[in-house]
Specification:
The complex is a heterodimer. By secondary structure, chain A is an alpha+beta fold. Chain A has helices spanning 3-23, 28-37, 45-57, 81-110, and strands at 26-27, 61-66, 74-79. Classes of the chains: A alpha+beta, B mainly alpha. Chain B: InterPro entries: UCP029876 (IPR008316).
Chain lengths: 111, 134
């Protein structure tokens, strides 16, 4: 993953994680695995975990501890009402940004 | 109850807090150390290295620091149990991971205090320049 990709992901990864949780609840490693399947190959498990700690601190997700066959109980995260609101805002911001960037690109082609 | 005995009680509670507060923190810290010792050797080495870095840049308040250490141990215990390689846990750039992780525990971080100080100083200067100062 290039430097540019890493930098751009920094601001959007939190929204991406919430978007994944909006489908169904998941635990940390499931989220990382799903991101890898979708082509985000170099995302660190620890980075996703840190973001999950953050969205939990901010009350955007509910957490349930589920016993696991191997190792300690897993924390399963699900998006709550506040998280959905936050995610709506994330998508609105994203649309705005994507639209403006597209305009910039089109403008660049004309000159 | 007279004011004097109230004051004495408060002093006694203060004394108790200064004695038992840190003791409970120490217990929590020892529990954390025991969890780290129980990890597979390579994971333990990784946690030790991260803790060292976080000593310099992490929270200065005991509560925040202990919460951070617990979260770090959670991550590595779970990763070891799931067999996730250390490189996948920490990523290509360990500093990047450490910084993302540390941002969750701003309380008592000196860099956090300095950021606030900078923002306050600029607020004052900017308000003064526009005559907005109350």
């Amino acid at each position: 993953m290039g430097k540019q990709m890493t930098e751009m992901l920094k601001g959007t990864l939190e929204g991406i994680v919430l978007a994944i949780l909006s489908g169904r609840p998941a635990y940390g490693y499931e989220i990382t695995a799903r991101l890898r399947d979708q082509g985000f190959s170099d995302i660190a498990e620890g980075t996703i975990y840190a973001l999950l700690v953050r969205v939990e601190q901010r009350g955007l997700v509910d957490v349930e501890k589920v016993p696991s066959e191997k190792g300690p109980p897993r924390k399963v995260y699900s998006l709550n009402a506040q998280g959905r609101e936050y995610l709506d805002e994330f998508w609105r911001t994203w649309s705005f940004l994507a639209e403006r960037l597209e305009q910039l690109r089109e403008g660049g082609k004309q000159t | 109850m007279t004011a004097e005995s109230n004051e004495q009680k408060n002093r006694y509670l203060q004394y108790l807090e200064t004695v038992t507060g840190p003791l409970e923190d120490k217990r929590r810290y020892r529990r954390h150390k025991a969890r780290v010792r129980a990890l597979p050797a390579d994971y333990r080495t990784a946690v030790d290295a991260l803790e060292r870095y976080m000593q310099f840049f992490g929270p200065g308040k005991a509560d925040s620091l202990l919460a951070m250490l617990d979260d770090l141990a959670d991550l590595f215990e779970q990763s070891a149990a799931d067999g996730i390689p250390i490189r996948e846990v920490v990523g290509e750039d360990p500093v990047e991971f450490a910084e993302t992780f540390l941002r969750n525990y701003p309380e008592g971080q000196w860099i956090h205090r300095e950021r606030e100080r900078l923002a306050d100083a600029i607020d004052r200067a900017a308000d003064h320049a526009t005559g907005d100062e109350p």
